[in-house]
Write a structure and sequence with these properties.
This protein is an all-alpha fold. It folds into two domains: 98 residues, RNA polymerase sigma factor, region 2, helix turn helix motif (Rna Polymerase Sigma Factor, Chain: A, Orthogonal Bundle); 97 residues, Winged helix-like DNA-binding domain superfamily/Winged helix DNA-binding domain (Arc Repressor Mutant, subunit A, Orthogonal Bundle). Helices cover 72% and strands 0% of the residues. The protein contains nine helices and no strands. The N terminus is likely disordered.
Length: 198
């Protein structure tokens, strides 16, 4: 059974099938369609502009090599997100042994990190305060362990549902909820530690 095949537009379906037969031009069309999404996802996960282009290209190389295994059980976008998240996760684990190259200051803010994420969406925030909050969230995410960063970015930044995150990470919704709870708790502890270091 291939439940998502009917949801694909005919052109994308043709490109995928051709790419599965090794057609690089057809895969190039898929890259054109999804490159902005992949670049954005890689940036949100890695948080370093200088690494985004190389990592995104590596994601597409991996996807081309693996596309024969794409079985239409999930949307192509979800499958490609899984490839991107796994590649970034591997990169973050390798990089984790390096100490952060910056010092973080909470700037006297008293907001909890999860409130900060919510406040970024608020139109009531003035641009200057929004920039400070965005910077704080970015720095906290950059310090977070790879597991935490992946699940927090997918939920809090990309706004995916628990079910969508489960599909990308190949986890049951209950396991995603546990990871989110633990990641949020660690992020809050990290934020408190940063304030004490100030």
């Amino acid at each position: 059974m291939e439940p998502y095949r009917a949801e694909l537009d005919a052109q994308e379906l043709a490109w995928i099938q051709a790419a599965q037969r090794g057609d690089r031009e057809a895969f190039g069309r898929l890259v054109e369609r999804y490159q902005q999404r992949v670049f954005a996802q890689v940036f949100r996960l890695v948080r370093r502009r200088e690494d985004v282009e190389d990592l995104a290209q590596e994601v597409f190389v991996k996807a081309f090599r693996a596309i024969r295994g794409y079985n239409f059980r999930s949307s192509f976008a979800t499958w490609l997100s899984r490839v991107a998240v796994n590649h970034c996760y591997d990169f973050l684990r390798r990089e984790r042994s390096r100490p952060p190259a910056y010092a973080v200051s909470a700037g006297g803010q008293s907001d909890q990190p999860l409130d900060v994420v919510d406040r970024l969406e608020s139109s009531e925030q003035d641009p200057e305060r929004q920039a400070v909050l965005r910077d704080l969230v970015g720095k906290l995410l950059a310090r977070a362990p790879a597991d935490d960063r992946v699940v927090l970015v997918l939920k809090e930044i990309e706004g995916l549902s628990v079910e969508e995150i489960g599909e990308i990470l190949e986890l049951k919704p209950g396991a995603v909820k546990v990871r989110l709870f633990r990641a949020r708790k660690r992020m809050l502890e990290d934020w408190r530690n940063l304030r004490q270091e100030k």
